[in-house]
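Tokens in:
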């Protein structure tokens, strides 16, 4: 049931594409823009009947747009990238494949979901084109036809053009977001140096002057002032440690992958942090016996993530409990680590900001505001993610999601 492509129709559709680019609103979501682009592609490529766009998000492969398919089914389409057909064809910009379903192992969720998606059909041909940011493949456009055996050469060229346009959009969006982040980080960095670091420095100078200008201070008074100087010095030291870790993260790109025991790592982190917790807080770790314990990841980076999130729970919770629960999601092969506390909670309107460098909700407790920015950056490199839920007066829950293994999905850049 091929569509007739007449010159007038072609020009009209081409104009739609030009309008789409002219009217780009950079705050629009990826999904909205890509949906419009894919609709035009399906309209203009004669054999195309259905289509989808998938993006690589960490270790996962996620369908963000589906045209012609059931919207609810599209939402289920999140699978480990390693299980996808394209993961074995990363060197190709364009792939044509008959009955793509046959390449998935029938035990995988990808197979089961795709089977539903393609309505049990065995007769289909799919054209897949890679989406790129510089040299890195970041996703794919798929178009399917149930009525032809292969796509015409012109259709292949057209799909390449659409995926180049989508790649341009995605690359510009990534650049724009990172530029915004850099400008913001730089200005926060300056105010951090001039304000946060100056505060303990000023106290140290003040205390030292008190000792020097008061000859009649007794030994105990001097000891008490020196204790305060020591406290401020330690505080400054930990601020500088955070800055140095954060700066290093901005430069280093390499991961040091090892096979680790996640349960052991969590126990180590807890035994290191427990002395910092308030005695009125109960700390529980639930690591079920029936889930895996092996993880292949970068130990230093995962350790920093756990220390910062669990360390915050201990720092901000003065009574109640901290529950750390580990789960395993078998269809995505990810560990889920939930850290739930009964601390003061974080105001709803601040939740989106707490991962920004130097952002702090209140300054009651010592800190640099870099802990969660480090968590976010590390998890990005480890192909994981973090989410937060919180209720003022009730507590905060962080949910860390991390792949069991990331070998084979590390960026080229
Ligand atoms: P900080 O060095 O200030 O702890 P983070 O980046 O680790 O910086 O956290 C940012 C802000 O998020 C903190 O200043 C704090 O206000 C808030 N926050 C983080 N974790 C918790 C928690 N478990 N309970 C309450 N507030 C928290």
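Residues out:
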């Amino acid at each position: 049931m091929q569509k007739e492509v007449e010159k007038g129709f072609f020009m009209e559709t081409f104009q739609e594409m030009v309008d789409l680019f002219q009217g780009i609103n950079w705050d629009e979501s990826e999904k909205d823009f890509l949906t419009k682009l894919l609709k035009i592609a399906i309209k203009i490529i004669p054999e195309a009947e259905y289509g989808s766009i998938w993006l690589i998000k960490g270790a996962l492969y996620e369908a963000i747009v589906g045209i012609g398919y059931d919207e609810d089914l599209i939402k289920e389409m999140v699978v480990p990238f390693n299980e996808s057909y394209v993961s074995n064809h990363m060197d190709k910009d364009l792939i044509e494949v008959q009955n793509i379903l046959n390449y998935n192992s029938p035990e995988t969720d990808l197979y089961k979901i795709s089977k539903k998606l393609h309505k049990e059909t065995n007769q289909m041909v799919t054209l897949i084109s890679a989406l790129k940011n510089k040299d890195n493949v970041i996703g794919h456009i798929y178009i399917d036809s149930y009525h032809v055996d292969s796509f015409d050469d012109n259709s292949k060229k057209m799909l390449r053009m659409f995926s180049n346009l989508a790649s341009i959009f995605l690359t510009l969006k990534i650049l724009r977001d990172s530029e915004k982040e850099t400008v913001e980080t730089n200005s926060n960095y300056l105010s951090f140096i001039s304000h946060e670091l100056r505060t303990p420095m000023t106290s140290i100078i003040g205390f030292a002057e008190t000792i020097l200008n008061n000859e009649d201070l007794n030994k105990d008074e001097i000891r008490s002032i020196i204790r305060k100087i020591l406290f401020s010095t330690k505080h400054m030291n930990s601020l500088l440690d955070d800055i140095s870790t954060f700066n290093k993260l901005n430069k280093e790109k390499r991961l040091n992958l090892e096979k680790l025991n996640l349960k052991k790592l969590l126990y180590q982190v807890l035994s290191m942090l427990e002395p910092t917790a308030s005695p009125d807080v109960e700390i529980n770790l639930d690591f079920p016996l029936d889930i895996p314990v092996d993880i292949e990841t970068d130990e230093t980076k995962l350790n920093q993530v756990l220390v910062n999130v669990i360390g915050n729970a201990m720092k901000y919770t003065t009574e109640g409990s901290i529950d750390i629960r580990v789960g395993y999601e078998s269809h995505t092969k990810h560990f889920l680590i939930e850290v739930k506390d009964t601390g003061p909670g974080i105001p709803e309107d601040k939740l989106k900001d707490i991962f920004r460098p130097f952002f702090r909700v209140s300054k009651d407790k010592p800190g640099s505001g870099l802990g969660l920015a480090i968590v976010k950056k590390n998890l990005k490199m480890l192909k994981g993610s973090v989410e937060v839920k919180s209720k003022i007066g009730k507590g905060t829950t962080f949910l860390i999601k991390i792949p069991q293994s990331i070998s084979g999905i590390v960026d080229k850049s």
